[in-house]
Amino acid sequence: MPVKLEQLHLNDAEEETNDLKEPKIVPSDKQICDGVVLLWRQEPASEDLGPADLLTRIISRNPQWELSREDLEQVLSGHNLLFTDESKLFTYADEVMSRHPPKPNPKVVDKMELREIRSGRWSFFAAKDLRRDEIIFYEHEPLTPILPLDKASLASKGRSCSLCGQLLTQSSQFTLKNLLDCQACSAVWCSKHCKRLDASTHGFLKHPTSKSKLVSASGWMRFEELCKEHGLQAPYAIGIVYARIILNRQDGAHIQEELESLAEVSQLLRTKAADSTNVGGLFDKTTGAVNSEEGPVWNELFKSFCTAFPQAQEQGFDMDTFLKNVGKYNINQLDGQIFTMYSHLNHKCEPNVRYEFEGKTGLRLFARKDIKKGEELFTTYVNPLHGVTLRRRELLVNYGFLCRCSRCQKELKSRQEAHTKQLAQEEPDQLTAPRRKSSIKASRPDLSELLKNGQEFDLEIPENLRLERRRKSVRFDDRVMVALEE
Ligand SMILES: [Zn+2]
Ligand SMILES: [Zn+2]
Ligand SMILES: [Zn+2]
User: Fold this and answer.
1) Shortest-distance ligand to the CA of residue 187
2) How many domains does the chain have?
3) Residue 423 C-alpha to ligand 1 middle, in angstroms?
4) Which of 150, 310, 343, 391 is most buried (most C-beta within 10 Å)?
């Protein structure tokens, strides 16, 4: 009987064809840092992974990346995400200071007292024993309402409040009846209160026909566009605050005085401490993310700012002031607004106070635990659910200091201990080391044992072998010769 031989494909080689075509890419430093930071944000426990396990996790999230353990370690060390000597890290907290102490209304802050903790820095202390959940103070309104940049387009179309940005749900009849619309443009306000607060600046910034030596409406609109283009809230906020200072005869001087009492630092120093701006990362657009290559953006924005406010430079508002104000806004803003009293609270990763937004514009501060008279009040600048590495990095980049609070010390110490223990345990059999069990690499099966039992199993293909194809499973060669009967 003649036998015809035919070659057949087995296994899953065929269905993977599309997958195979996906080319490997060498990620940039920024992509690597952002990937690691994102993992730490989403899974705080992943901060404890050693470099090998970290690489496995990063590759499983970014399968197309071509990245070796050495490269990963080098990039992370180069960007201060992995370091052995803390003292070499760049900090700028010593440069953060206020021009003069704040002058809080004694009626509002009767439970706290202000003390200078070092030259140019003030902080609040409990003026009496405070019980847990007790209200400490209430700030009715921020320094001056700042329109969120992402509401600017809706506001100019009359779909959100021109001052506070709140989306408008009111009927046009209600708007007209209450005179909440602008006679000269499409702006609308959510309340009489917002319209009144916006009265000093709205026309000068939004009506090209308005006459003022201090403001050019067309220049302002270009500045607004530029801020939108770069997605930068901070310079936009600075522009709004500056406009209120120079145009609002009633409140301008007060706004300026309060603003000067806030801690200030040049955005350039903050940019120097940041080397990874990231997707969902810690130094995002609202907190002033501009990576070092984007330095010229500030020149462009300042030039545009000067077109909007033609006399700014003459009045002493130069590039340095601009950058200091951008830095000031970024370190003091809370949800985009500046609450002057809240701004003077210092940080601890285990705070003794907490805040709640109250009504449309207010902020209330509560004791988070019992506080003794004379104790300093601490809020938290970062998400307390994050792991210690991420918290400290965020504080370092955004606020310029390495946190050495008791919680950080405790967590760093226990990590150090776990690490030492892990090293001691790792030697004879990696499979039994409990810390490594979670990793795919560590749970790699004993092949000879499995082959003996005739089981099918998934085999991990090392990523750095530059294989032309990846296989989900391996049984035998995927091309076999079969004999077909004629
Ligand atoms: Zn409003
Ligand atoms: Zn108008
Ligand atoms: Zn801390």
Assistant:
1) 2
2) 4
3) 59
4) 391
